[in-house]
Amino acid sequence: MSNPVSNSSVRGFMSQESFCRVCSGKVREFYDFGRHPLSDAFVDPEKVDDEEFFYRLAVGVCRDCTMVQLMEEVPRERMFHDGYPYQSSGSVVMRTHFEDFAKRVLNAEDLGTDPFVVELGCNDGVMLKVLADAGVRHLGVEPSGGVADLAAAKGVRVIKTFFEEETARRILTEHGPADVIYAANTLCHIPYMDSILNGVRALLAPDGVFVFEDPYFGDILERTSFDQIYDEHFFFFTARSVRAMAERFGLELVDVERLPVHGGEVRYTLARSGARQPSNAVAELVAEEETKRLTAPDTLSAFGERVTGIREELTSLLRRLRDEGKTVVGYGATAKSATVNNLCGIGPDLVSFVVDSTPDKQGKLTPGTHIPVREPEAFSGPYPDYALLFAWNHADEIMAKEQRFRDAGGQWILYVPEVHIV
């Protein structure tokens, strides 16, 4: 089936404007990816003729506070619902990552004897389960019913709702102030930041901390990991933009920590203004960002040119392999693969199928381009000549697991930071 999003719909570097969802300043568009489907809206083959929801995927930067953000918002109910397929504990690396953070909370000496921990977007409860098992008071806030049920089955206390100021005040009334509010790969999903941070300020204990981690825009630029840009990622944070955002809501950025997960993230720690002394790491990262001119027009224009180059090189490679009679299979039906497939026009004529370990995705078709998704066992029956690694952020884990593919002569195709074969 052909891709409904043709390359001709991609307009590249643009100069349209909208208004910043943080400070109301003017947002200047710097790249238009064209029409895209919802990244996690996998299609039932029996309903393939039903109309899919498409939106314009474009990204811009605020001229005032430098916050990088999408130009158009997708309604949250379309993205986060009972059928939301992503599970945080699906990767060994990520499971260990979240469990390690929970252990840091348990070992923290400044949280008192009876801390209360709230997680925004707790997903399947992989982090909170560690705290629950240790008897720590906790609460997960998760709007996607399916994964919330998985968390509850693990003994995690969870409420099925979106977090906003009203939610925070209700939690405060029922449970008291939170010593730690945590969010992993969640805050960047939420356009209505004013309600979120007003809620955080209302719920946070006087000496409490709000810790969140999300993809770092500096790493996206450095690696040209353009597939981090999709419907669920509305904001793309830097230390400078987070510091400015926090100040608008009576909060202060007091620490930053670079993380290797998900292709490069930063863990930001906010506290009430004046409650804690900012670490040297904050000033150092802000200075580094200023030196690199992360949000300067020429920097963003160069990023767009690299994205266009990757699109052209990847499609050319896949067409050549097809014409040579080679078999190509995708590995990992990730949310970000929707950006790659729909930007490049990659359908089942170029990639036969995609393997993924998530049961809810298996037997369905990828959003927009309708590549069949199959169970992991299909990868070896028989092995393809090439595997297009959509889950490149888990490359080490996956390649070690699939060593027999390499032993059989198979080769991996990657497109971050550039198109290459290994």
UniProtKB/TrEMBL annotation:
<keyword id="KW-0808">Transferase</keyword>
<dbReference type="InterPro" id="IPR029063">
    <property type="entry name" value="SAM-dependent_MTases_sf"/>
</dbReference>
<dbReference type="GO" id="GO:0032259">
    <property type="term" value="P:methylation"/>
</dbReference>
<dbReference type="InterPro" id="IPR013691">
    <property type="entry name" value="MeTrfase_14"/>
</dbReference>
<dbReference type="GO" id="GO:0008168">
    <property type="term" value="F:methyltransferase activity"/>
</dbReference>
<keyword id="KW-0489">Methyltransferase</keyword>
<dbReference type="Pfam" id="PF13489">
    <property type="entry name" value="Methyltransf_23"/>
</dbReference>
<feature type="domain" description="C-methyltransferase">
    <location>
        <begin position="260"/>
        <end position="417"/>
    </location>
</feature>
<dbReference type="Pfam" id="PF08421">
    <property type="entry name" value="Methyltransf_13"/>
</dbReference>
<dbReference type="InterPro" id="IPR013630">
    <property type="entry name" value="Methyltransf_Zn-bd_dom_put"/>
</dbReference>
<dbReference type="Pfam" id="PF08484">
    <property type="entry name" value="Methyltransf_14"/>
</dbReference>
<protein>
    <submittedName>
        <fullName>Methyltransferase family protein</fullName>
    </submittedName>
</protein>
<feature type="domain" description="Methyltransferase putative zinc binding">
    <location>
        <begin position="20"/>
        <end position="80"/>
    </location>
</feature>
<dbReference type="InterPro" id="IPR038576">
    <property type="entry name" value="Methyltransf_Zn-bd_dom_put_sf"/>
</dbReference>
